[in-house]
Amino acid sequence: MPVDLKALYPKLVNLLLDPVFVVDEHGSIVFISEACEQLLGYTASEMTGTSILNYIHPDDLERTLAAARRVMSGQSHTDFENRYLHKDGSVVHILWSARWSEEDRLRIAVARDVTALRRANQIRDALYRISEAAHGADTLRGLCDGVRRVIGELFPRDDFYLAFHDVAGGLLRVPDWSADQPSGWVEGPMQAGTALAGVVGSGEPVLASRDPDRPGLGLGLGLGLGRAAGSTTPELANWLGVPLISNNAVRGALVIESRSPDTCYREADQELLQFVATQVATVVERKRAEEHLRFLAHHDPLTGLTNRSLFYDRMDTALRSASRNESGLALLYLDLNDFKAINDTKGHGAGDQLLVEMARRLEGCTRETDTVARMGGDEFTVLLTDIRDHASLGTTVAKIREIMALSFDLGGQAVRVSCSIGTALYPQDGDTARQLLSKADARMYADKRGTPGPR
């Protein structure tokens, strides 16, 4: 019995897992196999007669048209890749094999779905980039910048937010990526009822609607517009947040949101962002531990002030800068009077509390460019930059004495203490750290004996 090949060919084509497209010279689809529904969500009847351009990702349209022109000129394509939009709005990566039939004036192509492969490549590259960012960043803030670049490549059309949560204080700490503060932080209380609060509170991914008035926070679950991943999708899921979890505790969240009204995040987006969040949480904890170790190496464990080692480094740096810029600086040496008596009568806990409070008051009397250090015991130093004369120095010393004269609350009891202060000016009193420290130390002891002399 003879075989009707013309009748058989469509049946054979429809058995293929990879869709077959036939497009005329004007871009209209004249035939498409049934596998297109698995690929793009449309049935063959829905796509037949429509323009192939309707389904191409907007960002790939120009280069796809250029590739089509090459095929129509006789150049076969076996490895052209572009992106299409699925009926549900998700992105599909397609690898094409195409040729032109001059006799029929048709483009004939076979499409292979490589979305899973590209997603796997994205995950691999993201893991590498995050690891690279962790090794290249000296600080947690630097690591955040590296993570931002990774997310920018994975979700180039979306806004990205990274928030760390302080459980004890109930505060969120967010990198400030604004133009005027490119390396700072913004801190504020967690805003209850937002989608972000839902992520941090539940430790689960949340899809929600973007809040146009509060970037990054998302409309709250209480409004019925958000959901944990796995439940019913909200009407407009253009906000996606996933938790940062480390040691079984929620440390914050990664958030992406889109300003486009057509965006609707899907499960694949959530899985990718959650994978990134898992890696980020690990490297963030490591970076925090590194920063803590560096802090302990350069700061006094009781007061948190700069320690003796770091103070000397900063003083050397300040002296080189003052010499180069022909500017001045001043050094203050402080010592609490009768500190031993407080320890003996009220206990070492009260003594420690007094030292901590003294440290905070000294910080409050100085500028961010100045350095306050604990040299040991009840001795402190203050390095003041851009101080040129005794009058300016005297104003600062008077302010410190006034603040220190206020009573301290030690265990519910008001205690008044005094301190002795010695000063030295650069370059009047010396041009090396040793000379200035020696001069300020001598004047501090003279002040303690009641014969302050010049200071």
Reconstruct the topology from this structure.
Layout: H1 5-15, E1 20-24, E2 29-32, H2 36-40, H3 44-47, H4 61-72, E3 77-85, E4 91-101, E5 106-113, H5 115-136, H6 140-154, E6 159-166, E7 171-176, E8 184-189, H7 195-202, E9 206-208, E10 227-228, E11 239-246, E12 249-257, H8 267-298, H9 308-325, E13 329-336, H10 339-346, H11 348-365, E14 371-376, E15 379-385, H12 390-404, E16 408-410, E17 413-415, E18 419-426, H13 433-448
Antiparallel strand pairs: 1-2, 1-5, 3-4, 4-5, 6-7, 6-12, 7-8, 9-10, 9-11, 11-12, 13-15, 13-18, 14-15, 16-17
The major pleated sheet works out as: 7 strands, antiparallel
Q: What CATH architecture label of the largest domain applies?
A: 2-Layer Sandwich
Number of domains: 3
Mean pLDDT: 84
Rg on CA atoms, Å = 34 Å
**Beta-strand share of residues:** 25-35%
- The coarse silhouette is elongated
How far apart the termini lie comes to 118 Å
How many strands?
A: 18
CATH superfamily of the largest domain: GAF domain
CATH class of the largest domain: Alpha Beta
Using the coordinates shown, work out and report the CATH topology of the largest domain: Beta-Lactamase
SSE-based structural type: alpha+beta
Q: Compute the number of helices.
A: 13
For the largest sheet, list the strands in their spatial order: 8-7-6-12-11-9-10
Low-confidence spans: pLDDT under 50, at least 5 residues? 222-234, 451-455
Helix content: 40-55%
